[in-house]
Automatic annotation (TrEMBL):
It comes from Streptomyces pimonensis. It catalyses: gamma-L-glutamyl-hercynylcysteine S-oxide + H2O = S-(hercyn-2-yl)-L-cysteine S-oxide + L-glutamate. Residues 244-267 are annotated as: Disordered. This is Gamma-glutamyl-hercynylcysteine sulfoxide hydrolase. It is an enzyme of class 3 (hydrolase). Keywords: Glutamine amidotransferase, Hydrolase. Pfam families: GATase_4.
Amino acid sequence: MCRHVAYVGPGEPLGELLVRPPHGLYRQSWAPRRQRYGTVNADGFGVGWYAEGDPVPARYRRAGPVWADPSFADLTRVVRTRALLAAVRDATLPGADAEAAAAPFAAGTWLFSHNGAVPGWPGSLAPLVPSLAAGDVLSLEARNDSAFVWALVLARLRAGDEEGRALADTVLEVAAAAPGARLNLLLADGDTVTATAWGDTLWYLSRTGGGTVVASEPYDDDPHWREVPDRTLLAASRTDVLLTPLKEPGDPLTPADAPASPREPRT
């Protein structure tokens, strides 16, 4: 359900990352190559990007399929960015939240996307509601599982957790409450990309010209794409990629017993 991509690196037009690649996110909206659940991502789309000198990202989101938006091609042709997060959506359940339900979600300097689904939503995650402040629950941007998962992540970030810890602890908490949940999460802050592979595909590319791409699936056939193992936390910057195994629910994730994580060498 959904495909998403994030980038951090030298300034690029949005279209060079989303539209121009032969299997980019634009094409993945109707012809994904590695999507395990669903076949067409026509229930909304969005892109968030960071302009030079501004830490707060801009967003462009719509409720319909990306190929039906005549403004998108012009936007991606002329807007340049040093970092972005974009997604095309295949809704788990139909709803009336329109573009509010489309990733990326945003708060402050952060952009967030969820590729996956939470079985039994909303009842399965009802026990987690008390962990959020009442104001956070009442101000959910949309009435879907992704928006609620984002609220859980955001609460941890605002409490001071670093990005990797916030994603990892949220994934373990949600997976314990809803076994079988698919929780590929993607978080960007303009300088780094943090992601989880939990139940669906995730890949990364360390570009020879500089920069890092993290995506649900490769946007071209470059042999340098690397698949992220399932149950893994990824932390990427413009120059490095760090992978750390995630433990199953019930096993606490602690830095002391985490195996050494591989780094992608730069070429």
